[in-house]
Amino acid sequence: MSELLVRTATGVVMAVVALFAAFQGGYALAVLAAAAATAVFYEWTRLAKGWGAAWYIGGFAYALLAALSLLWVRERAEDGRSLLLWIFIIVWATDIGAYVSGRSIGGPKLAPAISPGKTWAGFYGGVAAATLFGGAWVLTTGLYWLVLLLAPLFSVASQGGDLFESWMKRRAGVKDSGRLLPGHGGVFDRLDGLLPVAILTALAVIAGMA
């Protein structure tokens, strides 16, 4: 089986599991969030081995806060299910938009010293896709209108999370954070963009902006 097929199949399975947990909420989402946070922290500690205790503490807090944020959004927001799905749409649309526009347009590199494959075309494509699909979801579900304005900002945050993890991997001298997900590397590799968006969305809910 080709690498693209393996990557696609794994991605579909992950999306189905995430959507099932989002619709179910409660115990299903809590178990998935806890498992994902545990895997992220484990891979973080492997990347940051020898960097000092502050990195371990920071990684634990980062993974835990993101997991709690997902649960907070789902259970505490006025329309938690729709808002949680909006988080997924923003992250997934950003990834796909960045990949498609980056590969098809190319051009100047975004951060060649950190992630040589990323381009400015990919960056803007990711923001555009997240704004378009995230906005469509807001209008379809009737989420608070301010969420429309958050889509491009959170797309930037998602790409920032991706770049941060790429920097960690470059410093650690590894290609992937782990090998758990065929065709994708580790769990941290797949959730690097979701972590900051989950946290920021929870903060937006607390601030009354979502």
Structural features, described:
The structure is a single chain. The protein is mainly alpha-helical and 210 residues long. It has one domain. The protein has eight helices and two strands; from the N terminus they run ααααββαααα. Strands 1-2 form a two-stranded antiparallel ribbon. β1 and β2 form a beta hairpin. The longest helix is centred in the C-terminal third of the chain and has 27 residues. The chain is globular. The termini are far apart.
Key attributes of the depicted protein:
single chain; 210 residues; mainly alpha; two-stranded antiparallel ribbon; 8 helices; 2 strands; 4% strand; globular
Range of strand content: under 5%
Count of alpha/pi helices: 8
Helix- and strand-based class? mainly alpha
Gyration radius (Cα, Å) is 17 Å
Order of strands, main sheet, comes to: 1-2
List SSEs in N-to-C order.
Answer: HHHHEEHHHH
